[in-house]
Design goal:
Number of domains: 1
CATH superfamily: P-loop containing nucleotide triphosphate hydrolases
Distance between the termini: 45 Å
Order of helices and strands: EHHHEEHEEHHHEHEHEEH
CATH architecture: 3-Layer(aba) Sandwich
Structural class: alpha/beta
Strand content: 15-25%
Length: 246
């Protein structure tokens, strides 16, 4: 069996510098966008990324804001297609990005459990079997039948992690969610990730927290200007990150 869970080879991704608005649409339709010099049209968000992650590894990604961390996770998840290079993943992949991303704000917490489970291909019976465990893990049973829009940021994060981690993904991608919630919930989340890894799941965590990454990860990579610039050793990544903050 192939022990590589994620293979990223020479991946590059460009964003248009003008991302939205009627003016940008007009430039696309008229062809004027193409007449602008490429360096002024596009921003290279990822630039020649190479990364191989083994099954069962817990990998950290850290870097300054705008360095490409979140973009890399979205490319791995298949949300963005790279302009150059290739990405190969083995197994079912789930991404938890931001606080409550993907929730329907008008539905209740319970209804969002059902919605998320169905999006990931689980039938109604399987979702019902998981529901109580998800609610217990989230610790917000008293609010589970209230609309998500009434939840605090911490409550949304608790429910999001509870749902995604209980879907038992082969690959779990976490973008800046591990530092949300109180100490007990963060401790419970780390224990849940350890359980997933023992079952051969692979986890990639984007975080600014050295404490979280040091306690959970086997390797940590520093990223800057869309390029991975450290070798996976924890201390080299932490030294890089501290230097960037100065």
């Amino acid at each position: 069996m192939n022990d590589t869970a994620i293979s990223v080879k020479n991946v590059a991704l460009d964003y248009p510098r003008k991302k939205k608005g009627i003016g940008f649409l007009r430039e696309i339709i008229t062809g004027r966008f193409k007449k602008i010099p490429r360096k002024d049209r596009w921003f290279r968000a990822l630039d020649g990324i190479n990364l191989e992650i083994k099954r069962g590894e817990v990998i950290g990604i850290m870097g300054p804001n705008g360095s490409g961390k979140s973009t890399l996770l979205r490319v791995i998840a298949g949300i963005y297609a790279p302009d150059e290079g290739s990405v190969e993943v083995e197994g079912r992949i789930t991404l938890l990005a931001g606080i409550g991303t993907g929730f329907n704000q008008d539905l209740t917490g319970r209804e969002n459990i059902t919605l998320t489970g169905s999006i990931f291909g689980f039938d109604k019976k399987a979702i019902i079997e998981m529901e109580e465990g998800i609610i217990d893990f989230s610790g917000i049973r008293g609010f589970i039948d209230d609309p998500i829009r009434t939840y605090s940021a911490g409550m949304r994060a608790r429910l999001g992690f509870a749902i995604i981690s209980n879907l038992e993904p082969d690959i779990l991608l976490l973008d800046e969610v591990m530092s949300v919630g109180d100490y007990e919930f963060r401790k419970k989340s780390r224990t849940r990730i350890e359980e997933l890894v023992q079952g051969d799941a692979t986890v990639v965590i984007v975080s600014h927290s050295k404490t979280i990454l040091k306690s959970m990860c086997t390797k940590v990579y520093g990223i800057q200007n869309g390029q991975i610039i450290t070798d996976g050793e924890l201390e080299s990544a932490f030294e890089f990150y501290e230097s960037e903050k100065e």
